[in-house]
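Recall that a protein's primary structure is simply its ordered list of amino acids. Everything else, from secondary elements to tertiary packing, is in principle encoded there. The following example makes that idea concrete.
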Amino acid sequence: QVQLVESGGGLVQPGGSLRLSCAGSGFTFSTYAMSWYRQAPGKERELVADITGDGRSTNYAAFVKGRFTISRDNGKNTVYLQMNSLKPEDTAVYFCKVRYLFSTYWGQGTQVTVSS
């Protein structure tokens, strides 16, 4: 079955960096676009970035452009989110997502807290 496992979250000071990872299994990883979403307390889940299966095309939400970079290593079945210049408003649970065979699968999420 499809599984997505995120890692790499934690507590970081404003201006700091983190790299999130999401390992996928149960599907042909390189064939499918992958997405990162986030959900802050009391807010709806929102798209952060996505990347095509071959990694050639990416898309970012306006609020992270120039600060975050999505990438993937299909040899490792892993998608990454490099987050730089973090702000307190980036505090959220970050999820990866794949849409596979007309179903949507989510990881369990990883907490990112930006605070001094």
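The mean pLDDT is 97. The chain is about 0% helix and 55% strand.
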